[in-house]
Amino acid sequence: MDTALHKWLKIPYTLHVTEFLSPKKPKATFILIHGIGNSAKAWNTLIPLLPKNVRVIGIDLLGFGKSPRPSWGKYDAKSQARSVSATLLKLGIVQPPIIVGHSLGALVAVEVAKRYKFRIKKLILCSPPFYRQTEEKRRLLQRDEILKDLYRRAKKYPQTLESLSPLIVKLKLANSAFDINAGNVGAYFAALESSIVNQTSMIDAEKLKLPITILYGSLDPVVIGSNIRILAKRNSNIVAKKITTGHEVVGRYVKFVANEISAVVN
Q1: CATH architecture of the domain with range 2-265
Q2: pTM to 2 decimal places
């Protein structure tokens, strides 16, 4: 029945949500979308820094956390966006929400805004891995292609990634919610291939008309800062902010995100 409803009839899944803050009369509503290999728990350290007069909802993307993990799922940004939208509809959110997305979550946020233009108020994108398409000039694609090739090579060693997951967290290269295991490794690589390697997110973000703030770290090995700066030049709705951090929203990065959220309601 699950396959018939969601695979063949194309009915999107609804996703697991965490209501972090739920005031009676919220001044604004924020939707938090985690990065690849994470869950809504990735935002736990952010919540104490946020104003208490806003509604804050964390979503587990398809294939991660407590959300469904269909073995046949593509886990591309389009499928994720449809499930995010179905989830927001089920929650009965009245206010146009501000979406805060990290890494893969940032790409999903762009897709949600692209598909549901009139429902989203603003995007705050943290460490978005925007890569150019191969039809652009080769000399501009060099680093994009190197990173894409690295991701493709990583797909050949799923067991290695599973075994390294605890070490990555221990070394603080990812937050404590990062977890690659036998249950989600398939979704991890499917999302890596369809949403990050074969993406159109940079082109899509350039066309969006809503306000967008992009935070990216000067020490981030997988985000190409020049791509983000190009986007900000091409789209006057985009404000790009370079910060001295790595890729993950940990440590001082958390405060930068909290400040951006607070600025929306102050």
Answers
A1: 3-Layer(aba) Sandwich (3.40)
A2: 0.91
